[in-house]
Each structure stands twice: as structure tokens, then as C-alpha cells.
Fold this protein.
Amino acid sequence: MPVLAKQDSIRIYGSMEVPGDKSISHRAVILGSISKGTTTIENFLDGEDCMRTVEAFRLMGVSIEKSGNTLQIDGKGKSGLQEPQEPIYFGNSGTTARLMLGLLASLPFSSFVYGDSSLAQRPMDRVIMPLREMGGKFIGRMETSYLPIALDGGNLHGITYNMPINSAQVKSAILLAGLGATGVTKVIENYPTRDHTENMLQAFGANINVMHNEIEVISNGELHGTEVYVPGDISSASFLLTAAAIIPGSCLVINNVGINKTRAGFLEVLEEMGASVTVLNKTVIGGELKGDIQVAYRSLRGITIEGEIIPRLIDEIPIIALLATQAEGKTIIRNAEELKVKETDRIQAVVEVLTTLGAQIQATKDGMVIEGKTQLIGGTVMSYHDHRIAMMAVIASLITEGNVIIDELSSISISYPNFMDDLNNIVHKV
């Protein structure tokens, strides 16, 4: 079991970049693979999850060449995809599973998909239900609520779907299915969720209209290959920025980070808690806003996090909980039920890990309550094989009085393969 040794008298400082955005990398591979012509993806996230999406399309006959963090996809269009000759394995990737179910439902052949033991416990009915309304045909265990699932694709029709939950994965699955459906496919959201799919569909030439919280797509022929630059992943950056925000004397700059408004809720929380946050050099590439983020240490205060901001920071809540342990007063997180169906039940996992480390934190039905400011003590914790729980524990070890012992760190490679090396490069003894 890895031992994260107690750190004495350190500061976080430097200038760096983080790997490409996981959500954008997945979507670029999917759309590039169903487009005609060459698609080049720069700064692709070379993590386990995104490579599951690459391998899925290779099984359908798509030529995808990888050189470093650059992918080149030789797209033959949707009609050029071939029926896979073996089951498609999604590993631990929920994004791959839910988005690919939408796409595969629209393709005129049969397929069989499965994942690892963790992914097999994550609900797929939230995707299957609207896809069945569109005419999708599925067979799976527990009324097709969980993987593995067999699909008989094709013959879909457009629907109007009012989203019962705030999920960019469900929205994206429906829109991808709509590319191969007759008529108009419309999704209506309660709150805006990450809009990378909409941005990328426009970049690849899809007939898509976005009107506030309503998105509609009309199937009208082929998409066309393009060049995609993937900005740095703000979810990955959030862990390192939190280290700078909670360790006195720290100042960190992370360059070329995606700051899409549907993803940047973490920065708003940092600012509301009193952290010193500056965003420089804002530019738009391929419909995605990016910039250089500087965070410096400053005393923090507890806040309430709820409502429309939750979908814009759902993946950052574990590290926000750690941040809250170092803020004066109470932090309340509400409306975050979606955390229960991530790689693990992240409400339970966050509370158990931080309680073990000495935090005053309680779980609620839809979030958690954290009392600060608290000196963390160290201890032995589980990662639950969840990359974001593992990274949260690593950052916590920078401020604990004793060692943190964790069962594994290998899950971090799902989203940030070089996390430990990058962290070590910005930790300096003083």
C-alpha cells in the first residue's frame, strides 16, 4: 500500500500544464470516427478511459494512429463503420459507455458491450430509457439497467426529451443517436450541463441548434473531419490548484486550461471562498475557451454550494470537500445526488476518507456538510479505485500531521497518468 509521507514546511509554486480534457478527448474521437475525411486531435488525453473509446472504434474498422498526444483519424463516415467482430470493452469508462450506447443504437448492425466490475454497477437505464423511446433495441441484465448490454442498432426516430436529471452524458447519448435518427431530436435541460458535445457537433458540421436550455439536432448527411485542439482538463487542474489555495505562501500557474462556462464552476467556488484567483490570456479555440489560471494562498471561508452550479463542478466536489476542511466556518454542498453514481458513491467515499483523516464532515442525502478549519491528522484510507478520490487523498497528504496510507494509486492513470510527477515538480521545501 503506497505511503504518502508527511510533508514538512512546503510551498506550491511554479508554472505548468495539465493533460488534455477528458470529456473533450472522448467526444473528439467519437465525432472524428463517424466523420468523412481526416481528423487530427492535438493534446489528446492519453489516459485509460479515453483509450477505451479509441479501441471501440478500431473494432469498428476505423484507422486511428497515435503519435505522442496527437491522434490522426481516417474517417469514412458513419456508413463506413463495420459491425464489430468481438464484444466492445469499455473498462471503467462511464463516458465511453453512455455516449457509445447512444451512437451504437443508431448504427445498422448488432453489437455487444461490457465493462469492468465497477462499471457494471453504474446505471445505464438513464440512457437506455430515452434511446428506447427513439426505437432503440437493447437486451441486458436487470431490465437493461446495467452492463453488459446487447444492441440491435438502427431505425431510430427523433424525440423531444425533457431531462429528468442533470447529466451531460445522457444529453450527449441522445444527441449522438439523433445524428442517425429520422426527424428532429430535441433535448431540454433543467440546468445547463457541460456543452462540449454541442460545440464539437458544430465544429464537425452537424445541423444543430442551441437555444438556451434546448438543444436540437437534425440528421442531414455526413459530418466532416476537422482539426481539434484539446485544452487542459480543469478537473485535473483543480487538484493542483487546491494545493496552492490551502498551503500558505503558495502560488501556482497552470497554462492552457479549458474554462468553458459549463465547466468552470470550480473557479467560481474558489473565488467565493476567498482564494486569490486570476485568469489570464483567454482565447477561444474550436468553440472552447481556455486560459492561464493563477491561484495563490489566502484565508478561506465556508460557503453553500447548490443549484445550477452543481453540474458545472460535479467532478470537482471531492477536492472542494478537502478545500472546505481548510476554510473557516461551515461549507454545505447540496443537490449533488449525481455523485452517488460515479466510479463509486462519491458522497460516501469522500466522507469516509476525510473523516479518517480527521475532518469534521457529514454526509447528507444529496451532498455533505463540512466544518472548518480543521487540522488533518493522517491515516489509512481507501481510494475505492476512483481516480478523483485517490488524487484527493494525495493532496490531503500535503497538509496532514502524519502519513497517509492508501490502498492504491493506479486508478489515477484513468485521467492523469503523470499526476504524481507533476505534483512533485511543484512541491518545494522551504
The chain has 13 helices and 28 strands.
